[in-house]
Amino acid sequence: MPPVPAYFTSRTAELEALDSAAAGREDASADRSPAVTVVVGPGGVGKTALAVTWAVRNAGRFPSGQLYADLRGFSPETAVPPEDALGAFLRALGVSPERVPVELAEQAALFRTTTAGMRLLLVVDNAISAAQVRPLIPASSGCVVVVTSRLRLDGLHAEGARFVDMAPLPEKHAVELLTRSVGESRVAGELSDVTTLAALCGRLPIALRVAGARLASRPTWPVARMVAELRDERLRLTKLSPVGEASLTATFDSSYSALSPHAARLYRLVSEYPGLTVEVGAAAAALRVSGTEAADGLQELADASLLEEIREGGYRFHDLVRLHARALPDDERFEVVPRIATWYLHRMTRANMVVIPMRWRVSTVRARYEDSPALFATGAEALEWLDERLPDIIAVLEETSALRQDELAWQLCEALWELFLYRKHYQLWIRTHEAGIAAAHRCAHAIAEARLRCQLARAYLDLGRFEAAESECLKAVELAKGAGSRHNESVALDQLGMAAQGRGDFERAVELFGQSLVIEGELGIDRGVAQRHRRIGEAFLQAGRTADAARHLRLGQELFKDIGDVKGEAELTLSLARIDARAGEITAAKRELERAAAVFDESGSAVYQSDVLVAFAEVAELEGDFGAARGHLIKALDLCGPTGGLRVERARARLAALDARRDHPQQPEPASGE
């Protein structure tokens, strides 16, 4: 065996997996085949170190001895044929050179005969195929074979092989390896930089050992200096190449050279994808191939340990592998981000058409799918798809914006509306819309800029930042009027009304809602008219003008029913239930809220579900059931608390006021109608 590497760290789970495989075969007395375990992972992840360390620690379990062979499978020009390895094994077992057969089949037969009844450990390192390994497997059930490879070697499953996947070290253990190799006293005051260095090394043991060795041989260097050197992605692989040994670049080159032409092209182009998780559809868009072709190529890369499959149809590059792929020449790579951005835009649009089918959009992509079957069965399913991919969508949007692909950037931003409206990712909402507005402005698309300013204003309204919301809406009104976009003008007026209502100026709010209602009516947008009646009704209700509120809310309710907008009707029902409850119609109010709750339970939005619970709390409070009211508010905060914003502040204030009333019965009731 080669020597155990210095500073071998962690890998407890992998060592236990090897223990389990060996123990399982020892217990299987009826099974006459040896235990075979394949350790799979990318180059530099520490497969050989694991296998050798386990072998040395378990030498006593194998009284017949240990055999080691490096098959050099990822050095195609010097890969070891199985007959060469087998000949070496036979000679090591005492077979004289002149008795070693020339033909592989005869060698294998002699090997099985020689090892019969032995308790032998074989470590077969750097194998490239099952065919290279299969002749090296002895016949005795007392033997154990540990194979390492960057490929899965599925063909060995027929030999009863188990598979142990190796990933980069967890952050804690990567930091531990660096600390041990450099010295604890040396890095005692630089833990943050050590953690950063571990990340820049991709937590690959080979890179961590190189970084540690460079620091250890340069005692005056602070860790921060090494961090600064590795921040330059163009030089990182070179800096992490061991002196006098195969470089990381060469390690990855050998894996790349074994790929089919299709997988090699996929490797080069998909490396340009700015997100974390590459899925089949995005890869197909990047290469302009079918989904089946993309799936086959991605699986080949995963089998070669150049990608990690993190879920069905979803793959991820290791950071250093991505750098290697990006350094490979391919003129087509400059088209990748726009292609993937276009794919996301179409998927997002089709998801949004399920979440809010009747919403007006500036982007014309929707028109392509008017007569297409829905891509998702429910709005909740569509929202889940959008939410799961949000980090990747944002990465694509920001890269698209940086590349000045402005038409794509603002459309991606507009397509985030449904997700942000339902899930309230406020920080990301603001960040993405600042980028989207800048993109729309650069390509002089006033209507798109007005639309995005209104979308941004809604985030500010939800956060209670009314001045910021008004500023965006006033700019949107100016842009909309200049571009002749009555629809955008109406939306901006509506949100100016919401800002006025938030500040307590109900008269001004009703005036602005009324102006917007007129425009919606002139444009023939029934849903918009219904929404504005709802807004006016809610403002009147908050101002204490219950009769006027009920009139507008009933008008809105009828319109929502006529156009089949069940969610819009459910939102409006919350206010009607409050009116009924204040009039003493508790049973009717509860019945209305239960209908609304059924709609929002299917919406996929915890925020809307929390709105119903707050309304239930108000009804319970009016009924005198303060325990139930408190329970509803606590559930509402559990649902919407993580989102933050004005909605959460109001629910907390209501709960605090309720608790104060319980402790001090003479306290006045909290304000209602929010």
Automatic annotation (TrEMBL):
SUPFAM superfamilies: P-loop containing nucleoside triphosphate hydrolases, TPR-like
Protein name per Swiss-Prot or TrEMBL: Uncharacterized protein
UniProt-listed Pfam families: TPR_12 (PF13424)
Origin: domain of life: Bacteria
Listed InterPro entries: P-loop_NTPase (IPR027417), TPR-like_helical_dom_sf (IPR011990), TPR_rpt (IPR019734)
Species in which this protein is naturally found: Amycolatopsis lurida NRRL 2430
